[in-house]
Design goal:
The protein has 315 residues and is α+β, with helices and mostly antiparallel strands. The chain folds into two domains: 41-89 and 195-308, 3-Layer(bab) Sandwich (minor pseudopilin epsh fold); 105-191. The chain is built from four helices and 18 strands. The protein has helices at residues 14-66, 125-129, 213-216, 264-269; strands at residues 70-77, 80-88, 105-110, 116-121, 137-140, 145-148, 164-167, 180-182, 188-191, 195-196, 203-204, 209-212, 222-223, 228-233, 239-240, 246-253, 273-279, 285-289. The N and C termini lie far apart (104 Å).
Length: 315
């Protein structure tokens, strides 16, 4: 007769194994999230820089294809730029006649105190108001005079009948002409400033990523009228309306603290950052890293040093 011995079986139940595996997966997920959160933010910042660079590349291509200046207006909101618009520069505008004999002309009058008033005579004011705007420039070519229009009386309003309009201009740029003089019809025109392109949507940077205008301000030309940074390309690719050899836009995640120039610790705490560089002579566009300050006791470094390597400058 054989005796059968019963042994207790040691081990885990299936439910216990599943619970342990689940806990391991949760811990791994938390670890990966902590380890890669900075990397993900960095990728988002680089992506934001690439997106803004793409807007500039499209504008430059439009200028080359259409044979006219085109660009991007980066709209400043406080210390940040998160929105932009495509720009175009319309052809110069020549006033249309309203049927008055002699056609459109500018009349300058001066009082005894030296104050001058410019009045547009014989022009279709409705058509003119639809074509000029604050910041455009009145050109009186026969006298070599260019006067920027201000916002004091735009749109033009009649001052003496339907065929006269007051021009809001700074009279000091007009030559001394006596009490009253009329300019010829052919010498009157308006050079129109860059305008947002009709039908184009607002361009946006998403999330916490933005162009930091405070950090970029010394590296770009600000349009004070529109409170923006305008990057305009000529058909040959050259950047217009700037005296800088290059324009630089500093892209970063604004949820991180702003870096302090010369302080390496603050740069390292500021997260991933990149620079969009537009070289004025060639129109080349590059995305380059911010140069970190050297470790202590090294002195402050130039954060824009990476943009000066000469490889993309074309200067």
């Amino acid at each position: 007769m054989r005796l059968q011995r019963k042994y207790a079986r040691a081990g885990f139940t299936l439910i216990e194994l599943l619970v342990v595996i689940g806990l391991i997966l949760v811990l791994v997920g938390i670890t990966v999230s902590i380890s890669y959160s900075g990397l993900i933010d960095g990728h988002k910042t680089v992506g934001a820089g690439d997106r803004a660079s793409g807007w500039l590349l499209i504008a430059r291509s439009k200028a080359q294809r259409e044979g006219a200046p085109r660009g991007v207006r980066f709209i400043i909101n406080g210390t940040q730029i998160k929105e932009a618009q495509y720009l175009e520069v319309p052809e110069p505008y020549i006033p249309r006649s309203d049927g008055t004999p002699g056609g459109p002309r500018v009349r300058i009058s001066e009082d005894g105190a030296g104050n001058r008033t410019a009045t547009l005579v014989g022009a279709d004011l409705t058509d003119l108001n639809n074509n000029i705007a604050n910041g455009d420039t009145l050109s009186l070519s026969e006298f070599g005079v260019l006067v920027r229009l201000d916002s004091a009386a735009l749109p033009l309003v009649p001052v003496s009948g339907p065929n006269m309009g007051r021009l809001p201009v700074n009279g000091q740029y007009f030559p001394l002409l006596g009490s009253s003089t009329q300019f010829s019809t052919t010498g009157v025109g308006f050079i129109r400033k860059a305008r947002p392109m009709l039908g184009e949507p607002i361009l946006q940077l998403t999330g916490d990523n933005a162009i930091d205008f405070t950090l970029s301000s010394s590296q770009v030309v600000r349009n004070t009228v529109e409170n923006s940074v305008d990057i305009l390309f000529a058909p040959n690719g050259e950047v217009l309306n700037t005296t800088l050899g290059r324009s630089i836009l500093w892209v970063r995640n604004t949820s991180f603290p702003s870096p302090v120039f010369g302080d390496r610790a603050s740069f390292e705490a500021a997260g991933q950052m990149s620079l969009i560089v537009i070289y004025s002579k060639t129109g080349a566009i590059a995305t380059q890293p911010v140069t970190l300050p050297p470790p202590p006791p090294g002195g402050p470094s130039d954060p824009f040093a990476a943009t000066k390597d000469g490889f993309n400058t074309g200067l």
